[in-house]
Amino acid sequence: MGATSARERDDEGRADVRWLDVEQQWAWRRFLEGTSRFFEALGDAHDQGLPVTLGEYHLLVQLSEAPGRTLRMSALADFLALSRSRLTHTVDRMERRGLVVRTPVPGDRRGVNCVMTDAGYAALVDAAPGHVTAVRRLLVDALTPEEFATLGRAMAKVADAARGPAAP
Amino acid sequence: MGATSARERDDEGRADVRWLDVEQQWAWRRFLEGTSRFFEALGDAHDQGLPVTLGEYHLLVQLSEAPGRTLRMSALADFLALSRSRLTHTVDRMERRGLVVRTPVPGDRRGVNCVMTDAGYAALVDAAPGHVTAVRRLLVDALTPEEFATLGRAMAKVADAARGPAAP
DNA sequence: TGACGATAGTTGATTCATCAACTATCTTGG
DNA sequence: CCAAGATAGTTGATGAATCAACTATCGTCA
Predict the structure, then answer these.
(1) For strand D, which nucleotides have at least one atom less than 7 Å from a protein CB?
(2) Most A-contacting residue of B18, B35, B57, B87 (CB-CB within 10 A), to test interface
(3) What residues of B are in contact with residue A19 (Cβ under 8 Å)?
(4) Most buried among A17, B86, B116, B165, using CB within 10 Å?
(5) Cα(B110)–Cα(B131) distance, integer angstroms
């Protein structure tokens, strides 16, 4: 039977659901399995000798590209698609390890800037080669250039769909 | 500068890393952002009135398709790309709520079967329409049929790459 | 047969994520 | 000016994921 499969009817109400056909279901499951295994493998690659988790790494990347290696908490949360609370906790941990520091935002006394330290930058430089190598092996080089480009375009659309719930 | 970007050199060793070019990097970041936002949004849709999490839902789907609505723990872990430990904990929680039960495996006294109860099946039937609708809105209908099909094929390759670390 | 290594699954400690509640500042309409 | 509401960020409790260590059974090869 199965859920997401055509014909899940029994007798329940909801006759109006458009179930997935066999091919759609195949693609959907590959998507699920692929993302799951990919992130697991990428995380493993990071644990291999790197002292930053995958999430911390992405945070450092964002900071490294910002002017002054500095970004407001809210901007950071936005770029990383993280909840504010989660970012607070993550930055707590990284601050304890000296990878970032918090400073007040000049104009706005509610705001907090997150600034990458030299130690943070060093950690990023340290982790980058292994990271890129893993991303290549697991994703980029596993696909044809066309497939990878389509993947990028498709996921951009998906991000939009997830961001804006409804816009008539 | 950034990590995963071309030219991350400073002076470090590791001259041999093949960095991503601008387009590759764009695609890679869209992939990251898209998956992150997609799973967050899908999880939210599940919290809207459904008493099973996304992970539990997928577990029930697998069971619903197995003969006797029964699967060994190890097979289930495999299908769902879950660690054994995580599966144990998840099944613990679901068993407490009566969605599944554990039974011994006939031939092998090490083994444990996970069996879906009627309540588990009812929960699945209950959650399915909302689930499929969300998957459609956030993924399937957000893409062209070609894009979605390519996404499926691509992620199948990615899953393979992540499963087999190296096979000459 | 019986010792050894592999396989199956669990446990509990630690780490991490999530959620609701909270403080503080900022903005805007009256 | 100032009250109401929006924004920014934190906190702490709860629940879930991870990791290493552990028990038990199985398979096999000497």
Answers:
(1) 7-12, 16-21, 24-27
(2) B35
(3) 132
(4) B116
(5) 35
Could you identify the residue whose CA is nearest to the C1' atom of nucleotide D20? B85
Strand partners, A114: A71, A102
pLDDT tier at B48 (50, 70, 90 boundaries)? confident
Extract the tokens encoding B115.
């069996």
Q: Residue A166 — φ and ψ, nearest 5°?
A: -160, 130
Helix, strand, or coil (residue A131): helix
Distance CA B28, CA A17 (A): 33
The torsion defined by the Cα of A10, A14, A16 and A20, in degrees rounded to 10, comes to: -60
pLDDT at A11 over 50: no
Q: How far apart are the CA of A159 and the nearest CA of chain B, in angstroms?
A: 4
Handedness of CA A55, A61, A64, A69 (dihedral sign): negative
A1, exposed or middle or buried, with CB in 10 Å at 0-12, 13-18, 19+?
Answer: middle
Mean pLDDT lowest among A50-54, A74-78, A164-168, B51-55? A164-168
Region for A7 from its dihedrals, namely left if φ exceeds 0, alpha if ψ lies in -120 to 50, beta otherwise: left
Single pTM value for the model: 0.88
- A10 backbone φψ class: left, alpha, beta (φ>0; ψ -120 to 50): left
pLDDT digits (tens, 9 = 90+) for A87-104: 999 999 999 999 999 999
Q: How far apart, in whole angstroms, are the C-alpha atoms of residue B99 and residue B57?
A: 11
